[in-house]
Amino acid sequence: MERLFSSRIAALSPSPTLALNSKAAELVASGKKIFNFAVGEPDFPTPQAVVDIAIDSLRRGRTRYGASGGGKPLRDAIAAKLRRDNNLDFSIDEIVCGIGAKEILFHVFLALLNDGDEVLLPAPYWVSYGDQIRAAGAVPVTVAPPASLTDPNGEAIDFAGLESAITPHTRAIVINSPNNPSGYMLDHAELTTLAAFARKHKIWVIADEIYEYMDFERPHTSLLSLHPDLRSQFILINGLSKGFAMTGWRVGYAAGPKDVMDMVRNLESHSSTCIPGFIEDAATYALNEGRALMAPAIKTLDRRRKLTMMALDGFKFARPDGAFYIFLDVRDISRGRSTLEISAQLLNDGVAVVPGEAFGVPGFLRISYTLGEQELLAGLERIKTFLLQP
Ligand SMILES: Cc1ncc(COP(=O)(O)O)c(C=O)c1O
């Protein structure tokens, strides 16, 4: 039999961050000491109260199928959260929940895109956007960052570059603030420039706000709250993974125009069906408690952020306003090696970091500062020694 595959899916590569983490985990299992700066999750446990709600719910028999796209209590909690935290008014039929922000995003791309449509991705961008867009038959168009990416007062996105990337096929732009991998947060001026751009070209704005609660330098602002006229072309993506240390629970959601949300809900109904009921109950509780539930953990992360910045004083990196990443610019000290090579060498040296290639920007290394302070400082010393050796 001639073996034919979907050319769309055969073209995808595995998530490089997950691959790197598996490699680091293998080395740890073989007894090697690894400073793991490659993780994409907080090192805090899920708050005990959230765990207790899930256990209770299981005991009460919440073990059956639930509503596709999320039950009413969960969507009520999300609508209340969007009002409280983001000054955004969405009715519950404009909200759809799924198995993590990752799955919801995938379904949003499937709902919006046709073959050959183009989606703008200001780099650096999160690893899965490009492959999800390709799997939907569309084309990710990377827009390189401006030279000012590492300037604390400079712009994080190359707006002139965005303009020149527009074609008749452009359908959407994905923005992500606080940003993975660079940590930047878009300020009001940048959000307003993006809004004007989307308005002018009549394209979708898909705003991934999953690191919202890690907003150290200024309060997180959703573009739609500043520019409510964009409501019919704006889709918000969020989830509980990062803000509530619930990565393994797999709860994400989208809010946007009802016709798109109906399509996403249909996709949910034909794929994962529903979020498990006991997880819905726990997520509803967490959302209703809000930021306060994680305040001490967020404070700890901010302290680690400052320690990391201090330890890396003298190096260049993107402005680390939020999330839990430092995006280190090693172009001047790479001595001809790619960052793929540098990260492989660093792993042999006992340090896992993610090369910028994974995020569309070679020459940078992503460092997650979600390690305990002693481990963090020791690992950073190891990175510095490695990078500065003659
Ligand atoms: C920017 C960004 N968006 C979305 C996700 C996916 O989150 P979830 O765990 O909800 O699928 C991640 C996870 O790493 C992320 O970094």
Q: Secondary structure elements and their pairing?
A:
Layout: H1 7-10, H2 16-29, E1 35-36, H3 48-59, H4 72-86, E2 95-98, H5 100-112, E3 118-122, H6 127-135, E4 139-143, H7 159-165, E5 170-176, H8 188-201, E6 204-208, H9 223-226, E7 234-239, E8 252-255, H10 258-270, H11 277-289, H12 295-311, E9 316-317, E10 325-329, H13 339-348, E11 351-352, E12 354-355, E13 364-368, H14 373-388
Parallel strand pairs: 1-11, 3-4, 3-5, 5-6, 6-7
Antiparallel strand pairs: 2-8, 7-8, 9-10, 10-13, 12-13
Helix pairs in contact: 3-11, 4-11, 5-6, 5-10, 12-14
The chain binds pyridoxal-5'-phosphate.
Pyridoxal-5'-phosphate binds at residues 40, 100-102, 126, 176, 180, 208, 210, 239, 241, 247, 252.
Give an overview in words:
The structure is a single chain. This protein is α/β, with parallel strands linked by helices. It folds into two domains: 7-45 and 294-388, Aspartate Aminotransferase, domain 1 (Alpha-Beta Complex), CATH 3.90.1150; 62-292, 3-Layer(aba) Sandwich (Aspartate Aminotransferase, domain 2), CATH 3.40.640. The chain is built from 14 helices and 13 strands. It has helices at 7-10, 16-29, 48-59, 72-86, 100-112, 127-135, 159-165, 188-201, 223-226, 258-270, 277-289, 295-311, 339-348, 373-388, and strands at residues 35-36, 95-98, 118-122, 139-143, 170-176, 204-208, 234-239, 252-255, 316-317, 325-329, 351-352, 354-355, 364-368. A seven-stranded mixed beta sheet has the order 2-8-7-6-5-3-4, with helices on both faces. It has a four-stranded antiparallel beta sheet with strand order 9-10-13-12. A two-stranded parallel sheet has the order 1-11. Helix 8 links the parallel strand 5 and strand 6 (204-208). The longest helix is centred in the last third of the chain and has 17 residues, at 295-311. It is globular and about 60 Å long. The protein starts with 6 loop residues before the first helix and ends with a helix. The model has no long low-confidence stretch (mean pLDDT 95). The site of pyridoxal-5'-phosphate has 13 residues, from helix 5.
